[in-house]
Every structure is written in structure tokens, then in C-alpha cells.
Amino acid sequence: MEILDALKWRYATKKYDPSKKVDQELVDKIVEATRLAPTSSGLQPFEVFVITNQELKNKIVTSAHGQEIVADCSHLLVFAAWDNYTAERIDQIYALTTTGREQPADRYQAYTDRLKSMYLDRPAEVNSAHTARQAYIAFAFAMAEAASLKVDSTPMEGFINEEVDELLHLKEKGLKSVTLLPIGYRDEANDWLVNLKKVRNPKEKFVTEIA
Amino acid sequence: MEILDALKWRYATKKYDPSKKVDQELVDKIVEATRLAPTSSGLQPFEVFVITNQELKNKIVTSAHGQEIVADCSHLLVFAAWDNYTAERIDQIYALTTTGREQPADRYQAYTDRLKSMYLDRPAEVNSAHTARQAYIAFAFAMAEAASLKVDSTPMEGFINEEVDELLHLKEKGLKSVTLLPIGYRDEANDWLVNLKKVRNPKEKFVTEIA
User: Fold this and answer.
1) Could you read off the pLDDT tens digit of each residue along chain B, which spans 211 residues?
2) Chain A (30-49) residues lying within 8 Å, Cβ to Cβ, of chain B
3) How far apart are CA A103 and CA A109, in angstroms?
4) B73-88: string of b/e by CB count within 10 Å (b at 16+)?
5) Between residues 67 and 96 of chain B, which touch chain A (CB distance below 8 Å)?
């Protein structure tokens, strides 16, 4: 589906049909869209968790203020961002880039030195806010790709991050949960939002052209 | 173009051909993708500026550490988020939703009361960090839509936000610049990045499946 049509088609699904599962091939495409997302300085400071384990999904419902979509969805994606930038993490990504591009070992030395001087002295919460924003780009790509495959999704910020961090052992991995994205197939008969009009600010209030 | 193919095709363009302009029809589609982006509680707490004025673009180059892509691109998109949530802003969006969905005037009263109780007592910087994250979703949709139209773009965070805010009179509008997105057409012969391999964390390091 053309992207704009997909974006018009999508809506924040409020009721999933738990009997309908998303094919692995489609899940892989959605995850691949997140992996391709651009990030600041190419640092890719986040990971994605794909949860089908029902017991774990049920626990996350509790951390998500009882929202049953987390239990009923086919797959729950959790976007988790680095809790901080570290020299090791920056070096690791650029080692990958150096190898992937078949470049001399010190090709990115000056660049990574500059990144380290910018990031390593900043408070962890400033860096963590920055890594979270990168995860939002991938989060958006996942929604767009899902919609293009006619897979429903529900962007969610409303959950107790610390509880999800604990359930997924994120702290030990130096990660913090940022957003949830249940994906699956709508239960049209029981979804209160499905037939409500998508309302957006009209273009004239939203866009300013300066020519 | 299928979204995944578009995401593989895109790269952060480093050199634009200033003689090639993006057709208005395509710009409109890219802007429409941003307008369709979902936002937390549907508040749509951001606006988009589309700048073709060369003098203004040149000034923003200075605020963007001399990056000439801002001058050479066809259109410069600036994503600007609300500097805070206010009762008026929340009411205004929900008035639109109420009218758009032809619902009774008080349909969202309890909901907007809850939003106000959540947001209005929080520090402006907490709310502003939240509105900025919403703008990132739209920012990502713009990149995806542009790529699907074979329009190049360059996601940019590296600029002096306060200077861009001043150039666009954002403070008076209660907005803060979040990201820049030059769009246009690559100058392939002079772009150092165009032929370098896109490197991403391999899937096994990026994704954790919990079944």
C-alpha cells in the first residue's frame, strides 16, 4: 500500500482479535523497518523486544493500567533505548560501521572522539532523553510499515516504565523502555474507535510556508 | 515504492543539487504524512514550517553549524513542538475532534479534564520533552513518505535551537524547534555518503524475541 494511504488507513486499534496472529514474515518486515531507522550520528541507541509470551503480556497489561490490548494483540513490540551513552557503545557501533564499509580501523576515530566529548560528560537523563527520541523514529517506521501490510497497531506511552524495565530485565542491559506497540488484527465489532473519523488539525493551522 | 524498499533506499543526504526543486504536489504529500501522524492523546502538539525562502535558509545554515545542505535543499521542513500544554490548546484540539466526529459538545469533557490534571501542573520542560517526542513520529513519517516518492531528505538535530526559534518567531507562537528536515535531490557526484554502505546493528543484536 502507498504510504499515505497506509497512514490514512491506520488508527490506534483499541480492541484486538486474540485469535488472529500476524505471520512471522510480516513481523520480520515490521522489525526490519525499525532496524533501518536513521539515528543521531548513526548510534542506533535502542533495541526492540518482540513478545508473544502470553504470561509476560498479561503481566505488562497490569503495568499498562489494565489495557487489554497488550494481552489480546498478536505481538507486543517494546522499544527500549540506551540508558546512557558510553565509550564502549559508541566504539562498538563504529567498529561495525568500519567493518561494514571496509574502511581503515581509525577511519572514525576523530568522529567518535567528538561524540564522546559531547555525550559522556552529560547527565544520564539528558542522554537517555536523546536516545529515546531516536527510538521514536523507529517506532513511527514500525507503525507505517505495519499499516502498509494491513497489520493493525496501537502506539502506547501510557505504562509504568520501571515495571516494564523490570519485567524485561532492561536495567541489567542498560536499557529503558520507551514505548509499546501492540500489533495484530482488529476486533472490528468491539473496537469503539474503528469507525470514528480521524481528526487532524487542518493544514492551514498546521503548516506555515515561508517562500 | 514499498515502504521497506524506500527505507533501504533513503540515506541522510549530504549534498543537494540546488537547481533541482521538489514539485509542490510531492511536498504536499510529505507534509500530509506529518499531519496524519498519531500523537499522544491525539493532541497534535506540533507544527511544521516549510521554508523555501533562500535568505532565511542561508541564515539557518549559520545556526546549523554551517551545514550547506540547509541552503542547497529544495525545501527545508522545520518541526516545532508546543513549548507547553495549556488548557486552551487541549480544548482547541478537542473542539476540533468533537466537531469532526459530530459528537455532543461535552463528549470529551472528562477526558480533557484528565489530560489537564496530568499535564498542566508539570514543569514546562517535561511537557516540552513530551511534545517533542510526538514531533519525532511526524518527522519519521516525513522521511518515509519522501523516500517513497524518491525525494531525498536529511534528518538533522544538530543546530542551535534558540536561534532557529528566533528566526521563525517561534517563542511568540509558543513553539520550540525540534528537528530540521531538508528535502530535495542529491548531488550524487559530490555527496560523500551516497555510495557508502548503510550499516545497522545485525538483527540478532537488535531484536530479542520472547515467546
Assistant:
1) 689 999 999 999 999 999 999 999 999 999 999 999 999 999 999 999 999 999 999 999 999 999 999 999 999 999 999 999 999 999 999 999 999 999 999 999 999 999 999 999 999 999 999 999 999 999 999 999 999 999 999 999 999 999 999 999 999 999 999 999 999 999 999 999 999 999 999 999 999 999 9
2) 31-33, 35-38, 40, 42, 44, 47-49
3) 12
4) bbbbbbbbbbbbbeee
5) 93, 96
Q: Does B110 touch chain A (CB under 8 A)?
A: no
- The sign of the dihedral angle between the CA atoms of A111, B195, B52, A208 is negative
Q: For chain A, state the CA radius of gyration.
A: 19
Interface check for B111 against chain A (CB to CB < 8 A): the answer is no
- CATH architecture classification, B3-85+122-206: 3-Layer(aba) Sandwich (3.40)
Question: Model-level pTM?
Answer: 0.98
Q: What is the ipTM of this complex?
A: 0.98
Distance from CA of A123 to the nearest CA of B (A): 16
